[in-house]
Design goal:
Strand content: 25-35%
Radius of gyration: 15 Å
Oligomer: single chain
């Protein structure tokens, strides 16, 4: 049995994520980025990571460009978290999208907006890839439909 796809970030990626997270925590969103907090499934402590919330068809999503990361595993266990930009924090619930046809639509629009930043994690798949190529990438990139609680 093979391991689920996960591409660890380089030292530069980790540093850049730290900067983007710090900016979001201090009220500066880069093109819609935010800091997500999700409860750790083992530690119980809130884990923070910068994310690019994505809206497709009027619904908000979180996409894991790097694959089956720790935040994905934590989200599956917690079922939600919090998005923050500065002092504005919004709790949300999350439901994993399991239908690959729906995921492919979300991934294509995500790559149209964020491809400049995340294409390197999609193993050659881009917004211009065929439907078949996007469908083949779906198992490697978890997608969560999020509902912000007001």
């Amino acid at each position: 049995m093979s391991q689920p796809y996960y591409l660890r970030g380089s030292a530069l990626n980790v540093r850049m994520n730290s900067v983007v997270g710090w900016l979001a925590r201090h009220g500066i969103s880069l093109m819609g980025s935010a800091e997500m907090s999700v409860r750790g499934r083992r530690s119980g402590q809130m884990q923070r990571i910068p994310v690019n919330p994505h809206t497709h068809g009027g619904t908000r999503y979180l996409v894991s460009a790097r694959g089956h990361s720790q935040w994905v595993r934590n989200m599956r266990a917690a079922g939600g978290g919090e998005l923050r930009v500065g002092r504005r924090a919004h709790a949300f619930t999350a439901e994993e999208v399991t239908d690959d046809a729906q995921k492919a639509l979300v991934l294509r629009s995500y790559l149209e907006k964020w491809g400049w930043e995340v294409n390197q994690y999609f193993q050659g798949v881009t917004a211009k890839s065929s439907d078949a190529e996007l469908l083949a990438a779906c198992p490697d990139h978890p997608v969560f439909r999020i509902t912000v609680e007001d």
